[in-house]
Amino acid sequence: RKIKEGIFFAGAIDWDRRLFDALIPLPDGTSYNSFLVTGSEKTALIDTVDPSMASKLFAYFEDVKRLDYVVVNHAEQDHSGALPAVLERYKEAKVLASPKCKGMLVDHLHIPVDRICEVGDNETIPLGGKTLEFLHLPWVHWPETMATYIREDKTIFTCDLFGSHIAVSGLYENDHARVCEAAKRYYAEVMMPFRSTIKKHLERLGNYEIEVICPSHGPVHTDPSRIMGFHRDWVSEKLANTVVIPYVSMHGSTEIMVDRLTEALSSRGVNVERFNLTVTDAGKLAMALVDAATMVVASPMVLMGAHPKVISATFMANALKPKLKYLSIMGSYGWGGRMEEQVKATLANLKAEYLPSVMIKGAPVEKDFEVIDSLAEQIAEKHKESGI
Question: Is the pTM of this model over 0.70?
Fold first, then answer.
């Protein structure tokens, strides 16, 4: 499937996959994008596919008699997993990878060292009419990642950066809203902890003339400014006037508290995104945390601590390190416990300001609603003071 003269899509669409890394929901499937680049003298394959889809990759290769290089932008197996099979088929092919990626390919896939050539940052390799330039972009979410840029075609292959877990039949991002949502989900679930480094990478890529972005998941981007603009927003310090409320309610008391807080915040002009953790999609919660200003964690007491699903959600939030500015905790209890301390311990990575907690014994009564209203007022005022 031709992208530009001498540049072809050779990946695999995975329509049915619903879970990634035994962790991340995939409501819309995904793709593993691989790209064949043919110069007048040499041919290169940029990234491979998940090993389960190797046959899809080779279906494109019936007329490819020789492969000189396999570029590995990222060692994770959904991109490099078919590499052993490719090297077995093309005995002459050399792997091009960053120095750190070389070690990972040896460790994870047992690729022979003599098949791997290290490429330095900004190093170039000519194919004949097409020049590959390698840009080291560490900590897109692994330490070894890089992108590959073709000067003559103003085309860049960014692997996970600008990617989206979405299976579509078209090659390009025609449904912009759907692809944007999928890209935000992907950023939230995978890249948010590394937003400071990604911000620097975006600044660097701004120095390159780019017409086409070819990520390794999801559609190809022919409007680079759109997807790069979204990422600049996500990694920026801009916050939305939004409160995210992940919660669990066992016997209804905590849900009544969440209902009251939702109403009190809404009446003060603050947006609310609430997630019942017994049924919510973890990816949706991660997306909401990308630019929310405040999170209020709500839980009943379970065996003297927070509900396990609440701990799971706060553990995820702690790992993702969103740019939250304010935090609060609320919930109900029967006789006592240490829920507040437990939740705070699982959110230790977050540098947010804690607002007063609201802990209620039993079912809430009018005086408890007044405390919840006071919390809503404090949140609204904090947002205004911060210019949110």
Answer: yes
CA 102, CA 335: separation in Å to the nearest integer? Answer: 57
Sheet with 7-9, strands from edge to edge, namely: 2-4, 7-9, 35-38, 43-46, 69-71, 94-97, 116-118
* CA dist., res. 290 & res. 271, Å (int): 14
Q: How far is CA 141 from CA 74, 246, 354, in A?
A: 10, 25, 28
Tallying the residues shown for the chain, one arrives at 388
Cross-strand partners of 246: 275
Contacts of 341 (CB under 8 A, 6+ apart): none
Looking at the chain, list the stretches that DSSP marks H as alpha helix, in order from N- to C-terminal side: 54-59, 77-80, 83-89, 99-109, 176-186, 195-205, 224-235, 253-267, 282-289, 308-320, 339-346, 366-385
Pairwise CA distance, residues 87 & 261, whole Å:
58
User: What are the φ/ψ torsions at residue 36 (nearest 5 degrees)?
Assistant: -100, 130
Q: Report the C-alpha gap between 374 and 261 in whole angstroms.
A: 10
> In this predicted model, what pLDDT tens digit does every residue of 150-161 receive, in sequence order?
999 999 999 999
Question: SS in 3 state form for 169-181?
Answer: CCCECCCHHHHHH
Name the 3-class secondary structure at 360: strand
Tens-digit pLDDT profile for residues 334-364: 888 899 999 999 999 999 999 999 999 999 9
Closest CA to 292 of 250, 327, 256, 257: 327
Q: For residue 179, with 0-12 CB atoms within 10 Å meaning exposed, 13-18 middle and 19 or more buried, which class applies?
A: buried
